[in-house]
Amino acid sequence: MTKSTLFFVLVLLCLAAYRFGRRRSLAVASGRIRNLHSLPGYYGFFVALWCGVPALILLVCWLMFEGPVINHLVISSLPDELRGQSPEQLGLVINDIRNVVGGKETSATNPAIQAAAAEYLRLRSLSDALLAAVALSVSVIGGVVAGQRIQPSLRARNKVEGALMFFLIACSLVAIFTTVGIVLSVLFESIRFFGLVPITEFLFGTDWSPQMAIRADQVGSSGAFGAVPLFTGTLLISAIAMAVAVPIGLLSAIYLAEYATPRIRAVGKPLLEVLAGVPTVVYGFFAALTVAPFVRDVAQSLGLEASSESALAAGLVMGVMIIPFVSSLSDDFINAVPQSLRDGAYALGATQSETIRNVVIPAALPGIVGGILLAVSRAIGETMIVVMAAGLAANLTGNPLQAVTTVTTQIVTLLVGDQEFDSPKTLAAFALGLVLFLATLALNIIAMHIVRKYREQYE
Amino acid sequence: MNSEATHVLSRRTADIVKASLGRRHAAERRFRLYGLMSIGAGILMLVILLVSIFGQGYRAFSQTYVGLDVSFDPAVIDPDGGRSPEALASADYGALLKRALGELFPDVTERQDKRALHRLISAGASYAVRDEILAHPELVGHSARIWVAAGADVDLLEKGYFDRSAAEAERRMKDRELAWVDRLKAEGRLERRFNAKFFTAGDSRDPEQAGIGGALMGSFYTVLVTLVLSLPIGVAAAIYLEEFAPRNHWVDFIEVNINNLAAVPSIVFGLLGLAVFINFLGVPRSSPLVGGLVLTLMTLPVIIIAARSALKAVPPSIREAAMGVGASPMQTVFHHVVPLAMPGMLTGAIIGMSRALGESAPLLMIGMVAFIVDIPHGIFDPATVLPVQVYLWADSPERGFVERTSAAILVLLAFLILMNGTAVYLRRRFERRW
């Protein structure tokens, strides 16, 4: 029985258990619901839970441990000359065995591998049969035992609600586990990376060329991991993006919040927000194919030297992407400024724009700054636009017409394609990820703090 | 100060104000204009973006076909005469097509010229002929006009991408090839048809054979996994936090976590997926399953935040009424509050899914960028998704991929518009003011 059929059989068993529990509760109450502590459906759920949950937990655990255990058994069944190899070569052998099992074309004609593949198949079908037997018996036993416990005085509703509450709490903990998972996964690999490359070299070195040589005696075999050009590149592109997004976003927010008729607002606001809904890969394509050549042509007609993958093109397009973030956040905060402040300014004879510039904006400033910080964190973490339009050359430059590279671009280039998991090249991506995570985390926390403080001010 | 002095002074103030009034009103008008201009600039950018992509992409929805009179020679297709499907499926249809082309242009004899001639039709054309024969085995021994996809250059020429007036040396198609195409056209053997293959075929190195079918299925499975996981988990978390959670540090910590996760760069989730799901838990690389898991973690904050505000919008009187007739807290929430909040939750879920559908950066980390020709048939098969397909094609040097990329973007945008439109409709239709 394969695992998916087993799963469906378990689901069917649960449905049967529900009906069984319901019926039985009515039977023990001799058909009168008011003799029961809970509604009959709760007895059904009670039995179904006992029938399904332990078996499903068993299924999941089995899935997690099945692979390693089978691998171990297959390896120990291999002849000695294959078993005595280094772990890497053993990995290749396992891979060969898997390919034979999967029926793929392989170069492995070694009879030992064929035999091992047969052994692998045998173990796998054995494991499936064993799992089916154990899971089904756990399920049936659970259902029967729970069914036996049904009495009119059994507090089935409380038990079912307790289980449900447990599920709700577990789901809300997923957020914490995700954060912990992110921190641990980038931290562990980064620590390994800093064991190979000193942290000072990584943070303050100005030379980035992570290509590791295939042979040890090759030129430039060491690889250089100075991340400063990446940081400056990221900051340059983000600065260009903010230079586009902040004025346009802020001014549109002001117009939409203070001047626009309801009709213009109803059209303009959603249209601007469409910009936030466009996938970033589309912006990347637009930047690489339309904006970058345009920027290069304009620069050349002005007699400037411009690379075909300029920081300016990526930054401009990223700025367009960020406009709606700035504008919708600023819009919220401008609307939150109490009308009384505006009325006070009008009463002193200020024009509307003077009121906005001297009263409304200063009052909304903390919120706007928070929103801008959130937008900066978005710009730093943006990936597709820079991957497609900013290039890979790690230039340490402030010239927006040259190609620069960013932290996110390098993470992608280091991790896409074949990788060994132990090389500094792969680990460097995680170190960059750690820097990125910490930087955005700091920005987010500061921004959220400012925003929350500001929200309380007028409430 | 006497009254006369006050009068003089106030008149002077009024004069000063009056004198400056023109300037101030001009500033007012300017300020207003700046605002209008920035909204205009934002919308203009949107229009330029959409127009440029539409302009580059709409032509990919049609494809040039060449009509060839192929004689289905039994000696080539099925020398044994058994007409078994296996024999028919493995016959050399490329040779038949080449022969048909040779009969059309008998004066082409040089080897190099022949090769150029064969480039007029797509390298995948023989499969189309095979499918035709498999569908109509009775054609063997007869001859029929078969329409096959034209080669990428012919297709681009027909769509007007090449400048015929340029000097021959600078042209991708030489005079001789242009003459062939013109003759095909004059004989009515060249046709533009709707490119249905674009929606059903998998990826390919040849632009005229490449389609988004595989990527569409990959996206479907990935978003399906995301929806199945993130909707229950997100709604459950929102219910707990909004309805049951006590006010304490733990719950505050969860909330800070959720808000922060909403702002973590998506690529960091890709690193998490690579380190935890693939390397630690051994989930198959490149599969929609691992993509869906990563996107679940990414969209959870969106769904939780939307679901919480939907729950918040249900007035307390509903809860009090349910409690009043003896419902338990759990019954109150699940029988009364959640059904009322459902439209809002679903709207949030759809918006979360549309974000997941457009996301590509974290999927690059977990191997969904591989060149995958086969169409995935489940959540364990290697797959790619639509945005990543766009990324892959955008990197391809072939000229023909530009319009394919834009067309794939148009399909992606169509799906996003559909999803967001549904969300807006749901909100309008079911929104209740209490």
TrEMBL record, chain B:
It is a multi-pass membrane protein. Keywords: Cell membrane, Membrane, Transmembrane, Transmembrane helix, Transport. Its main location: membrane. The chain crosses the membrane at residues 33-54, 220-241, 261-282, 289-307, 333-351, 363-386, 406-426. The keyword Methyltransferase does not apply. CDD domains: TM_PBP2 (cd06261). SUPFAM superfamilies: MetI-like. It is found in: Cell inner membrane; Cell membrane. It holds the Pfam family DUF3333. GO terms for cellular component: plasma membrane. Residues 216-423 form the ABC transmembrane type-1 domain. One of its GO terms (molecular function) is phosphate transmembrane transporter activity. GO terms for biological process: phosphate ion transmembrane transport. The keyword Transmembrane applies. Belongs to the binding-protein-dependent transport system permease family. CysTW subfamily. PANTHER family: PHOSPHATE TRANSPORT SYSTEM PERMEASE PROTEIN PSTA, PHOSPHATE TRANSPORT SYSTEM PERMEASE PROTEIN PSTA-RELATED. This is Phosphate transport system permease protein PstA. It comes from Methylococcus capsulatus. The lineage of its organism: Bacteria, Pseudomonadati, Pseudomonadota, Gammaproteobacteria, Methylococcales.
